[in-house]
Amino acid sequence: MKDGVFYGRGINELKDECPELYDLVESMSDVLYTGKSLDYKTQKLIAIAIEASKLNENGTRKQMVSSMDELGATKEEIMDVLRVVLLTCGVPAFNNGVRILNSI
Fold first, then answer.
1. What is the phi-psi region of residue 33: left when phi exceeds 0, alpha when psi lies from -120 to 50, beta otherwise?
2. Hey, which residues does 5 pair with through a beta bridge?
3. 43 and 27, same structural domain?
4. Exposed, middle or buried: residue 46 (CB in 10 Å: 0-12, 13-18, 19+)?
5. How far apart, in whole angstroms, are the C-alpha atoms of residue 9 and residue 73?
6. Which of 28, 76, 86, 90 is the most buried (most CB within 10 A)?
7. Does residue 5 register a pLDDT over 70?
8. What's the domain range around 14?
9. Coil, strand or helix at 74
10. Which CATH number belongs to the domain containing residue 91 in this structure?
11. How many CB atoms lie within 10 A of CB 48?
12. Do 29 and 47 have their domain in common?
């Protein structure tokens, strides 16, 4: 998450229903995405790999779109990420990620 944009289910509803919890989640995100060792774009590419490895279609698509829109990630960079997914998680996760990428 960056700049108040959350893609997780239910997080945005917390803003009105339980603002203290929303503020906690937002603060945690700010602490986690520091860019101290890895820049934010690299962290987002890692998030794509994680979502793709779980075969989470919605999460994979949202991470891909946000990394392209917000950070200028290219399809070639995302394809490199998916190659790592192929190596570490296998063909189904890779194929699913490629299908999602090609639909964007």
1. beta
2. 2
3. no
4. middle
5. 24
6. 86
7. no
8. 7-34
9. coil
10. 1.20.1290.10
11. 27
12. no
Separation CA 12–CA 46 (nearest Å): 23
| Rounded Cα gap, residues 45 and 72, in angstroms | 11
Tokens coding 34: 């520091």
Q: Are residues 96 and 59 in the same domain?
A: yes
- Taking the C-alpha atoms of residue 34 and residue 53, their distance in angstroms, rounded to an integer, is 24
Predicted pLDDT at 1: 47
What pLDDT score does 11 carry?
Answer: 72
How far apart are the C-alpha atoms of 62 and 23, rounded to whole Å?
A: 22
Q: What is the DSSP string of 10-28?
A: THHHHHHH-HHHHHHHHHH
Amino acid at 99: R
User: 3-state DSSP call for residue 38?
Assistant: coil
In a domain, 47, yes or no: yes
Joined tokens for residue 80: 């490199």
Same domain, 15 and 49: no
